[in-house]
Design brief:
With 202 residues, the chain is mainly α. Helices cover 72% and strands 0% of the residues. The chain starts with 5 loop residues before the first helix and ends in a 19-residue tail after the last helix. Mean pLDDT is 76; it is low at 12-17 and 186-202.
């Protein structure tokens, strides 16, 4: 018969209980690499939100291109009419605008500035990506691009008005080449205009 003392039995029980507790604790302890469910859901929510913004940026880019192209076309038409009137009617009458060439050059430069701003907006919109790591910064850049396009259109419009005013100043006519409130207003869009009435209608 084995001679096992009571003390040996107690010691064995304690050791078994201790090792079992450690094993159990290790089995239920979360691993450091596994993210919790709320974190995963939060990341998915951010990605969905970003994707929605990405679609809006693409749509907004298409809208600003269409709007700007339309405005530029109408502004260019008005500018051409004013220049044609000046060359065919005003100059032959012996009157000239001293800074005419500078005004026309300014109009051309402002048109190119709008074109450049528009191209940048299109490029930045196409480059937007939720996986870039900096979607917020890209969004801010695109907003600045849109503002630059709008500001550029205003300057372009203003330069055409300057030419119209200059032509008015040498003709002495009160009737305008354009209705400046509507014809050069981006919200209404330029409209076909009447020539100055001096020496009869065209």
């Amino acid at each position: 018969m084995l001679n096992i003392s009571k003390a040996s039995i107690v010691t064995a029980i304690i050791l078994f209980a201790g090792s079992s507790s450690v094993a159990f604790a290790q089995s239920i302890a979360p691993t450091a690499s596994a993210p919790s469910a709320p974190v995963i859901r939060s990341e998915k929510g951010k990605l969905r939100s970003c994707k929605a913004k990405e679609k809006k940026i693409i749509k907004r880019s298409e809208q600003i291109v269409k709007f700007s192209t339309n405005m530029e076309s109408k502004f260019a038409s008005i500018s051409a009419k004013v220049q044609e009137y000046y060359v065919t009617k005003v100059v032959p009458s012996g009157k000239t605008v001293i800074n005419y060439e500078a005004l026309v050059s300014g109009i051309d430069a402002n048109k190119l500035a709008v074109d450049s701003a528009l191209e940048k907006a299109k490029t930045d919109a196409a480059a937007f990506s939720c996986e870039s790591g900096t979607p917020k910064e890209q969004m801010m850049v695109f907003k600045d691009d849109i503002k630059a396009v709008k500001d550029g259109l205003k300057v372009y419009r203003s330069s055409i008005k300057d030419l119209i005013v200059a032509v008015h100043s040498v003709t002495g006519e009160e009737n305008g080449l354009v209705n400046e409130d509507n014809d050069l207003n981006p919200s209404h869009g330029p409209k076909p205009t009447k020539h100055l009435k001096k020496g009869g209608k065209e």
